[in-house]
Amino acid sequence: MSFVQPPRYDVAIVGARCAGAFLATLLARAGLSVAVLDKAPAGTDTLSTHALMRGGVIQLARHGLLEAVVAAGTPPVTQTTFVYGADAITVPMKPQAGTDALYAPRRTVLDPILQGAAREAGARMLFGHLVTGLTRAPSGRVDGLVARNPAGEAVRIAADLVVGADGVRSRLAHAVGARTLRASEAATATLFGYLPGVNGPGYRWHFAPGAAAGLIPTNDAALLFATTSAARFRSAFGGDAARAFPALLDALSPDYGALVAAAGMQGKLRAFGGIPGHLRQGFGPGWALVGDAGFFRDPLTAHGITDALIHADLLAEAILGGGGPAPLRRFQEARDALALPILEATEAIASFAWDLEAIQEHHAALNRAMKAENAVLAARAPLVAPAPLRLSA
To answer: In the chain, what percentage of residues exceed pLDDT 70?
Structure first.
């Protein structure tokens, strides 16, 4: 078989969503040669809660990307309301680390911003490229990948490091045999609908035994999601999203049904059937994982984009520090120290094995984990120009 032979890259990244595109931006800005491959065409949407937590906003601001999110008309989130049964608690957003609001951009807004930043920094963005396999040196070390381009041609990419940012079902993680360091049992089924013209000052999270919902203001609409355990979604509703969505909302408050009726639904109702969380081995000979490929937690805590941006920054630091086993091990240790408290709190919330008193305790644990995360970000030094890559060390 003949291959199209592009130049060799310092880093090849599989996946051009939040983690992959952001990592590419940071590495290319520092002068590394970077190729990013994604099987989807440019500009495609993806399922998401959209919500950025404080750490994600800090990351975008720190690297000069928040202004574009705001300029795209993303509404500022100035408060968060937690509703526990009939009791509501509203928490205003306080200024922190140069940010005074949260944001929840549509993925058709955020992803192109991150991908454009990567391209502007010099990364080569290869959309419509399906990665079909890895290449290895005689030692067994990963030294590149093989993909099929939009014309159906086989393309070989040689790279000193291959990064999997290809999502929760990462084919790269499977190909390298990445070990699962921690597996979660809880999983929710989450049903997503967009309400055009609905806006508000903040996030709204609503909890009652067996059900939860969220209302998240985003670009030109609000995302309304309803969720229950994946097991209940199958047993009580037969996996029927159209049947489950109004039933779950009614169990929380009749106000949601009135809101949907008044606003109308934008597009189709979308469903995520539920996948248990995981924390995977973060690196190996010639490869690393970032984003959901390395760490996935249930979407009920809406922390995925924030995790992706933070962990991409940690991995960029390791790669720019030479990329050898020692800095990559420090990346994994730093990632795990932040991720495990998030995973544990999310697992407790997603289990639905709580009453209204216990769920507030779980949220307090999640808040402590996020505050610790923000403290780490506030203390981080700017990324510096790369040391010579020592990936084979």
So the answer is: 96
Question: Is the pLDDT confidence value at 392 over 60?
Answer: no
**Mean pLDDT computed over every residue of the chain:** 94
Contact yes or no for 86/206 (Cβ under 8 A): no
CB under 8 Å to 148, separation ≥6 — which residues?
A: 129, 130, 132, 154, 155
Cβ atoms of residues 113 and 72 within 8 Å:
yes
Helix pair angle (304-320, 325-350), 10° resolution: 170
Residue with tokens 């996030």: 203
pTM over 0.90: yes
Residue pair 176/142 in contact by the 8 Å Cβ criterion? yes
